[in-house]
Specification:
- It is a single chain.
- The chain contains one helix and six strands; from the N terminus they run H-E-E-E-E-E-E.
- With 119 residues, the protein is mainly beta.
- It has one domain.
- It has a six-stranded antiparallel barrel with strand order 1-2-3-6-5-4.
- The protein is globular, with a radius of gyration of 16 Å.
- It starts with a helix and ends with a strand.
Length: 119
């Protein structure tokens, strides 16, 4: 395994120890048009994740990009299909919308994914 592969495995291990299980879901337009409703049908894709959800430090809350109540989430990159803004995170009985995604990928290998989520 490469150095960054080892880091990804270490991050995954730490998140499994200190994080909690969650689910990321994405609504995808299937492309099938339903003439009865006048809409395209949607498919829902989901993936189980291990996540650590924390409050943003007060110094980072600018009420423009980061709002009061936003959460900072770290998700293991091991086996992860990188989330997109508007995806949903269900974690500890709460539902959040993904606002921003930062893939921490030195040398092009994902080690950890940081999400900004909003209730």
């Amino acid at each position: 395994m490469s150095f960054y592969g080892d880091l990804a495995a270490d991050a995954d291990s730490l998140l499994k120890e200190f994080g909690a299980a969650g689910t990321i879901t994405r609504k995808e337009q299937s492309g099938e048009y339903d003439p009865a409703t006048g809409n395209y049908t949607e498919a829902i894709a989901s993936q189980d994740v291990t996540a650590l959800v924390i409050d943003y430090p007060q110094r980072l809350i600018d009420n423009t990009t980061v709002l009061q109540g936003d959460k900072q989430v770290y998700v293991s990159a091991v086996g992860l299909i990188t989330p997109k803004p508007t995806d949903r995170l269900a974690w500890q009985g709460r539902d959040y919308t993904v606002v921003n995604v930062k893939d921490l990928a030195p040398a092009g290998l994902s080690v950890l994914v940081e999400l900004q989520v909003r209730a």
